[in-house]
Structures are given as structure tokens and as C-alpha cells.
């Protein structure tokens, strides 16, 4: 879908923000770009919609050099969400959402329908909020509008530049889970820049970790944590807050030890998760009896996941990502993870 | 207050006319300034390298005194409405340009990036995002310019563009006629406040509607100022007669008008109160005027830049006539009898106190009297320079505007002034003219100055105007000036009565 080929960016002042990077973003993939400040992640992202032009190298969308597209049409097909939110303050919410569809000359009726649909999708009542000005909305609400403004003209690609970093923690968490739900519905190709490693690990199908203008490692969140390719990756990923705030994603047991296929004979002893067609979660059995276990999302924080364990008095839970069963999580997995995260030095425990 | 009311009632026609002219001048100038400065400001935000130099140029324009701009413009665009409009527009550029540039530049960078990233073209970004957001700042600039223009427009009267400045100038020329000055100054201030309030209303709505509110202002004001042009578009007179500021030129102009209209089929328009010699002369040269009354002495010293070769009236006239014919191809028709020369005048009391009869007598009172001279007189050979050389005088001199001298001598701030021999205040304050035995002041006889081409087109006016040749004595002129300046009689009526009483017309 999006392809970087030896893309380099040198600014007039001589700084080489991006050094010959190459990578691909697949169609429908959610890629998070992360790294310390000045690593070139934002520059890389802005080269996709040509807000910044590369010094050398090639960026292709659908196998076509982005310079061959009309620049405005290219941008109409790339939704853009900014850290500063940047809703136009003199326009109503409705007018803000209509900016790109208007340029694409949508019919008024289609536009109205689309606006209502999008607003409902992010939990904003169209009748209440449509004709309000951005300043009348809370920060979280504003960024919801920022997201649906980017989605309005149904682009194939969405770029998000630290979209939630200006929000308070509660709104941020809410929006993070909203964007995940949204992605399950809309399946866009998303490039998401962030400086928050937990956010990057929780949201990304893959995480692209950059440092000093180079891609250090690009892989799934699990891979990044389990197989860091350099010390930099290890340190950077390790720099997280408490392990309790880590998404369960990285602790998931993907060996399918505790998974049985639907329709086979279920073991008489122990708790097992049943997997159906297309890796769907079907249900669970305990000692041969069907029991009710809710699947947990792969991005759920560990602390919250443990409350689900308590609630259902179980020692194992199925983990899903985009409605697909990715593995299981047991108390044992959690303990192993916590063990890996802590070091024992002279009898003192360090995180 | 009652005096002001009386002056208002007396000059109601002129008052409303002046307000209207003032409004027209201001709005057209503002309009032109907006049409230049807003697009230019927008352009500069797209080409930032040249922005600062351009803004500096407009800042320099702003520092040139408005009077100087007018003087520069007269040789190029003539007199009247046009140069006034140009000068006022040039004046109004800076605040609008600077606010447009700043307003657009101060739009949040994130919004610009959002607009770009969403695929807006440069123009669309300007129209949909930058302009609406910068509109309040731009409007503030427009308001500043508007107040500036309404205030400065009072000087337009100096070059015959009319407006409230005409009342003020007239008031100053009359030796500080306070009610008349106020009648011009107060409405100018009120006009500025009123227009400012109207623009503020636009400013409030401008953030919402952006382009639309700007367009509304433009269209509305265009309508206001063009309607009168459409209504009275075609009353072009055959001849335009002008005159300097003051009663005497105005009376003479009207005499010319009456005579020409009575004795030929031509129609005449008068443009009184034209300020100084240079302005009127340039206007004649440029074709804005066809005739104006000038003095023989002035033609030689000011227009030709020569010295009078003689003190004999006829010889001075001939020198002036031949010189201006050769230099500018203009005809100085036959002069009238009276000699409105420079005179040195003092009060009867001072004359008695020091026994003053001639200019030379001032020597004895040199340390005790202060002289109030016009800038021009102070600097001329046929003025104070000559007085110093020929009479050996060394007076304490204060230079001042012509209109202020009479007040100064009346109040006793000065004891000696330079005066025009025929001026009305000579009668009013019973001033004594000191004799000039050395003849340093050449004769200043009034005569119509007209372009040869005008005479070729209307040969009949030469004979008509020459009827006044050798007529009108100094005393007659003084009396007429007194009637206009001090008894508030209408110049046209005074001129007409004189012509009638002396048998020029029936």
C-alpha cells in the first residue's frame, strides 16, 4: 500500500532527519511509528502526504510514485489527524467535517448522511453537536471530530500525528480504545506517530521503532518485546511505566497449548479455549463442561485484565485482536512476564 | 455655542456640501487603499522575502507630510479631487497592509498545516481559512486607516478638493474665526467616530463571513460614492475659474463669472479657496482651471523666479505679461487699477507712540516692537530681506500663517505685520501703512491669467475680462473684502453689486 524506498530527508540547515529508510505498510495495516524526539518519525509520516518533500528516494502508494498523483487529490485520499487537533475555529463541527468531501464535490445529501453516520460512530449526537463551534467541545470531543474529519471523504490511508498526546489521560485512554474499535469496522491503512511506547504497542499491528533517522526495528509488538534486535530497542521498550499498565498483548501465550478446535473431543480435565473457523473464538470448556468466559482485547492493560480473571474466577482467558483469537493468557503467563521485567540485584528487586 | 449655531445657520449649504465632499473623499480613498493594500498584503504572505521592504516603503509614504505629498502630486495629476484621493490613499496603505500581512501570518500554523494536509489549494486555504481568521485584524487596520483618512482629508481643501477642511481653512484665513473652524473640526471628528462604529459592526461579523463582509463594505461604499456622480454627471461648465484662498480672489472670480456669463453664451464654474500660488498655477497649467486672478508682482517673483526690473506699474505689468507668455504661453490680461502690494502695517497707537511714518522710522523702535511676518515675506527680497538691506533694520520677527497675523496684531502679540494693501482687516482694525520711499515692494496689480489655448478657443473672453482693466481702486477693493470677510456677505453678491453699481452690467 505505502512503500518507502531509500527515502532520505536533509533539511536546509544540514540536519539529516531521515537517512535512507525503506519499509512497507500493508493495506489495512495499523503501523505505529515511534522513537525518541528528533528520530525522524514525524518527518517520515509527513512525507507520505507531501507536507515534506524527501531529498532523495521514492515513496509509492499503490505502486505509484506519490509525485505522479495530483497533490490535492493525493491528500484528499489521505486523512490527516494532528496533535494540535486543529479544527477550524470559525467553522461549525459539520463544516469542519465537510471540508474534504466538499472539495471532492460530494452531493449535499450524501454529505449529510455521512456526517451523521460518522458522528454517531464516535458517540457524538449529530443533532446536538453538528452546528456547534469547536470551542464549545471538550478536548476529547474535539479530537473525535478531528478523527472523523479525516475519515469523512472515506480515504484509503489515515495519518495520525501524536493525535492523543494533548489530551488528558482519561480522554486519551477512551480515544485509544475507540480508534481500535473504529479500525475493526473501517479497516483503513493507518500510520500513527506516537512517543508513548505503550500506545505504540497497544495500537499497532506492527511497530516501527526509529532512532536518529533510521528504522531500528519494525515488527509486531510481541516481537519487539520478546526479540529486541538491539540494546536500543530493549532499552526503549523497557522504558515503559509499570508493567501493570502494559497491554496484555506481550504476555499472550500463542503456542495454542490451551486451545482446542471446535468439533473435536474436548479434554476431560482442565480449562480450554475453543477455536472455530477463521480463528474465531467460540467458547471455553472446563473439565469437559462448557463455561462462559469473555474474550479480552489484546490491548487491555494488565491491571484491568486481572479484574476479569477475578470476576470469572478463572485462571485462563482467551485474547482476541480484531475479532481473531490470538492466544490465551493465564496467571502463569503473567507471572513469567513479570519475572522477565524485574531483575534481582544483590537481593533487591529492580524493575 | 450660540455663535456656533449662528455660523451653522449662516453657512448651512456650505456645511452640508462640505460634509458630503468629506465623506466622498474619505470613502473613495479608503476604498482604493483597501483594494491595493489587502491584495498586496495577501501576496506578501506568499512571498515573504519582499514583504519587509514593501512594508517599509509604505511606512516611508506615511512619514511624508500630507501637504508635501499633495505638492508632489500636483504637477503629475493636477488639482482637486484626484491628487487628494491619491495622497489620502497612500496615507492609508500602511495600517491596512501591515494588519493584513500580520493577520494572515498569525493564523495558527497548525491550522495552515491541517488545511494543506487536507488538500486545500493555496487560494482555497486563503479564502476558507486564512482570510476569515485574519479578518478581525484586517478590519482593525481598515478602521485605523479610516480614522487617519477622515482626519487628514481636511487638508484636501488646500487643493480645491473641498471637504470640511474648507471651513477650517476659511476660519483660519479670517484671522481665527473660531466658530467657523469648529464648524469644520467638530463634524470631522464626529464623522470619524461614526464611520469607525459602522466598521466595528462589520468587524464583529467578519470572522464568520470573511470575504463576504469585505465585499459588502466595498460594494456599499462604492454605491454611496458613485450615486452622486451618476445623478449629476453632466454639468460640465465651459470654463472653470479658480482662485487662491481668501476674499479678494473669490470676489474677482465671481466678477469674471458674472461678466462672462452676462456677455457671452459660455457657462462658468468657480472653484474658490485654492490655497497657495503654486497650487493654483499648477492647476491652470494642467488644465483643471482656465482662468484665475493673479498679481503682476507674483508672476515675476514667484512664477518666473525673477526680480522686478522697475517699480513703475506699467513696466512691471509688461515684464510679467511678456515673461509668462514666453515661459508658459499664457496671457496676463490687463490689470486692474488697485495695487495690492505688500505693505508694512502697524496700529495707529504704535505709530503715534514712536512717531512712525515710513518703514525706515522703525529703526528707533527696533528693540521695542515685534514683527509678525509670513514665511514667504520673511524670505523675499521684496520683503523683509529688502527691509534689512535698504532700511538697515534688524527686527525681532515671528513667522506665521497669513490668517494669523491679523489676530496677532489685534491681540498685541506683535506690533508690526506685513499686509496686503487691499485686505479687509486694514479697514477693520484701522491699520496704518508705513511708507516705502525706497520702493522695495514692486507693484502687485490683479489681472486675469489665462492660457493662450483657452483664449484661442474662446477669443471673446479676452475683451470681456479686459473691461476691468484699470478699474477698481484700492479703496473699492478694501471695502469689498471687508464686506465678505467681516460682514459675511456672499462673494458672488458683492461682485455682482459692484459690477451693477459701476455700470458693467444692467
UniProtKB/TrEMBL annotation, chain A:
Domain ABC transporter: 2-237
Membrane protein topology class: Peripheral membrane protein
Principal subcellular localization: membrane
InterPro entries per UniProt: AAA+_ATPase, ABC_transporter-like_ATP-bd, ABC_transporter-like_CS, CBS_dom_sf, Gly-betaine_transp_ATP-bd, P-loop_NTPase
Domain of life: Bacteria
One Pfam family this sequence matches: ABC_tran
Molecular function via GO: ATP binding
The protein's Enzyme Commission number: 7.6.2.9
Keywords assigned: ATP-binding, CBS domain, Cell inner membrane, Cell membrane, Membrane, Nucleotide-binding, Repeat, Transport
Reactions the enzyme catalyzes: a quaternary ammonium(out) + ATP + H2O = a quaternary ammonium(in) + ADP + phosphate + H(+)
Compartment annotation: Cell inner membrane
Stored Gene3D superfamilies: P-loop containing nucleotide triphosphate hydrolases
PROSITE patterns attached to this UniProt entry: ABC_TRANSPORTER_1, ABC_TRANSPORTER_2
Quaternary structure (record): The complex is probably composed of two ATP-binding proteins, two transmembrane proteins and a solute-binding protein.
Family: Belongs to the ABC transporter superfamily.
Protein name per UniProt: Quaternary amine transport ATP-binding protein
Organism: Pontibacillus salipaludis
Protein's gene: opuCA
Automatic annotation (TrEMBL), chain B:
Entry keyword annotation includes Membrane: yes
Membrane-topology annotation of the record: Multi-pass membrane protein
CDD domains membership: PBP2_ChoS, TM_PBP2
Protein name: Glycine/betaine ABC transporter permease
Keyword field contains Transmembrane: yes
Subcellular location: Cell membrane; Membrane
Main location (coarse class): membrane
Amino acid at each position: 500500500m505505502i512503500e518507502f524506498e531509500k527515502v532520505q530527508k536533509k533539511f536546509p540547515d544540514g540536519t539529516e532527519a531521515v537517512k535512507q529508510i525503506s519499509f512497507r505498510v500493508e493495506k489495512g495495516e495499523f503501523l505505529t511509528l515511534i522513537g525518541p524526539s528528533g528520530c525522524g518519525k514525524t518527518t517520515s509520516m509527513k512525507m507520505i502526504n507531501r507536507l515534506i518533500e524527501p531529498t532523495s528516494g521514492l515513496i509509492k502508494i499503490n505502486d505509484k510514485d506519490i509525485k505522479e498523483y495530483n497533490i490535492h487529490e493525493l491528500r484528499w485520499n489521505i486523512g490527516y489527524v494532528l496533535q494540535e487537533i486543529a479544527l477550524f475555529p470559525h467553522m461549525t463541527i459539520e463544516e469542519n467535517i465537510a471540508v474534504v468531501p466538499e472539495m471532492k464535490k460530494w452531493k449535499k445529501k450524501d454529505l449529510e448522511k455521512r456526517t451523521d453516520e460518522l458522528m454517531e460512530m464516535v458517540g457524538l449526537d449529530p443533532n446536538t453537536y453538528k452546528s456547534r463551534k469547536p470551542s464549545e467541545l471538550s478536548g476529547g470531543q474535539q479530537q473525535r471530530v478531528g478523527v472523523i474529519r479525516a475519515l469523512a471523504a472515506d480515504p484509503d490511508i489515515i495519518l495520525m500525528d501524536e493525535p492523543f498526546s494533548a489530551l488528558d489521560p482519561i480522554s486519551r485512554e477512551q480515544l485509544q480504545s475507540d480508534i481500535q474499535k473504529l479500525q475493526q469496522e473501517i479497516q483503513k491503512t493507518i500510520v500513527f506517530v506516537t512517543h508513548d511506547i505503550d500506545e505504540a504497542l497497544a495500537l499497532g499491528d506492527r511497530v516501527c521503532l526509529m532512532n536518529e533517522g533510521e528504522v531500528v526495528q519494525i515488527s509486531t509488538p510481541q516481537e519487539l518485546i520478546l526479540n529486541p534486535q538491539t540494546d536500543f530497542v530493549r532499552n526503549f521498550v523497557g522504558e515503559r511505566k509499570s508493567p501493570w499498565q502494559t497491554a496484555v498483548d506481550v504476555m499472550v501465550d500463542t503456542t495454542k497449548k490451551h486451545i482446542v478446535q471446535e468439533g473435536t473431543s474436548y479434554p476431560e480435565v482442565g480449562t480450554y479455549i475453543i477455536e472455530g473457523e477463521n480463528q474465531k473464538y467460540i467458547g471455553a470448556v472446563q473439565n469437559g463442561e462448557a463455561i462462559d468466559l469473555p474474550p479480552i482485547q489484546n490491548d487491555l492493560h494488565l491491571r484491568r485484565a486481572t479484574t476479569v480473571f477475578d470476576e470469572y474466577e478463572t485462571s485462563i482467558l482467551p485474547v482476541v485482536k480484531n475479532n481473531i483469537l490470538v492466544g490465551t493468557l493465564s496467571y502463569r503467563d503473567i507471572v513469567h512476564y513479570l519475572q522477565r521485567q524485574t531483575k534481582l540485584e544483590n537481593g533487591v528487586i529492580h524493575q | 455655542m450660540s455663535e456656533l449655531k449662528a455660523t451653522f445657520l449662516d453657512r448651512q449649504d456650505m456645511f452640508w456640501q462640505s460634509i458630503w465632499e468629506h465623506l466622498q473623499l474619505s470613502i473613495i480613498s479608503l476604498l482604493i487603499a483597501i483594494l491595493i493594500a489587502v491584495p498586496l498584503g495577501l501576496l506578501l504572505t506568499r512571498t515573504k522575502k519582499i514583504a519587509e521592504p514593501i512594508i517599509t516603503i509604505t511606512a516611508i509614504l506615511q512619514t511624508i507630510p500630507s501637504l508635501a505629498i499633495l505638492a508632489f502630486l500636483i504637477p503629475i495629476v493636477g488639482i482637486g479631487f484626484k491628487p487628494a484621493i491619491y495622497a489620502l490613499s497612500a496615507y492609508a496603505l500602511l495600517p491596512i497592509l501591515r494588519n493584513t500581512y500580520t493577520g494572515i501570518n498569525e493564523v495558527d500554523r497548525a491550522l495552515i498545516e491541517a488545511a494543506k494536509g487536507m488538500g486545500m489549494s493555496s487560494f482555497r486555504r486563503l479564502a476558507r481559512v486564512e482570510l476569515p481568521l485574519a479578518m478581525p485584524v484586517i478590519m482593525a487596520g481598515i478602521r485605523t486607516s479610516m480614522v487617519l483618512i477622515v482626519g487628514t482629508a481636511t487638508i484636501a481643501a488646500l487643493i480645491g478638493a473641498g471637504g470640511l477642511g474648507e471651513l477650517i481653512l476659511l476660519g483660519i484665513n479670517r484671522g481665527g474665526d473660531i466658530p467657523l473652524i469648529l464648524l469644520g473640526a467638530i463634524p470631522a471628528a464626529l464623522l470619524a467616530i461614526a464611520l469607525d462604529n459602522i466598521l466595528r459592526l462589520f468587524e464583529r461579523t467578519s470572522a464568520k463571513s470573511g470575504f463576504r463582509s469585505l465585499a459588502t463594505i466595498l460594494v456599499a461604499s462604492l454605491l454611496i460614492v458613485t450615486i452622486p456622480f451618476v445623478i449629476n454627471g453632466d454639468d460640465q461648465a465651459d470654463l472653470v475659474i479658480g482662485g487662491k484662498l481668501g476674499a479678494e480672489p473669490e470676489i474677482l472670480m465671481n466678477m469674471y463669472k458674472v461678466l462672462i456669463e452676462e456677455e457671452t453664451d459660455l457657462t462658468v464654474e468657480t472653484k474658490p479657496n485654492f490655497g497657495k500660488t503654486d497650487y493654483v498655477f499648477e492647476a491652470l497649467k494642467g488644465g483643471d482651471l482656465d482662468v484665475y486672478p493673479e498679481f503682476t508682482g507674483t508672476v515675476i517673483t514667484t512664477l518666473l523666479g525673477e526680480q522686478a526690473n522697475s517699480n513703475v506699474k506699467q513696466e512691471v505689468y509688461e515684464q510679467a505679461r511678456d515673461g509668462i507668455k514666453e515661459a508658459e504661453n499664457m496671457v496676463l490680461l490687463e490689470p486692474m487699477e488697485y495695487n495690492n502690494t505688500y505693505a508694512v502695517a502697524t496700529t495707529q497707537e504704535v505709530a503715534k507712540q514712536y512717531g512712525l511714518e515710513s518703514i525706515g522710522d522703525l529703526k528707533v523702535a527696533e528693540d521695542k516692537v515685534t514683527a509678525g511676518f509670513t514665511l514667504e515675506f520673511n524670505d523675499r527680497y521684496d520683503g523683509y530681506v529688502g527691509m534689512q538691506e535698504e532700511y538697515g533694520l534688524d527686527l525681532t520677527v515671528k513667522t506665521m500663517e497669513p490668517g494669523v497675523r491679523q489676530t496677532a496684531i489685534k491681540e498685541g502679540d506683535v506690533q508690526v505685520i506685513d499686509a496686503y494693501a487691499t485686505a479687509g482687516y486694514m479697514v477693520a482694525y484701522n491699520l496704518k501703512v508705513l511708507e516705502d520711499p525706497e520702493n522695495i515692494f514692486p507693484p502687485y496689480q490683479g489681472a486675469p491669467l489665462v492660457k493662450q489655448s483657452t483664449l484661442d478657443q474662446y477669443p471673446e473672453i479676452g475683451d470681456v475680462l479686459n473691461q476691468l482693466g484699470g478699474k477698481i481702486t484700492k479703496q473699492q477693493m478694501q471695502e469689498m473684502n471687508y464686506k465678505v470677510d467681516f460682514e459675511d456677505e456672499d462673494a458672488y453678491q458683492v461682485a455682482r453689486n459692484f459690477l451693477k453699481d459701476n455700470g458693467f452690467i444692467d
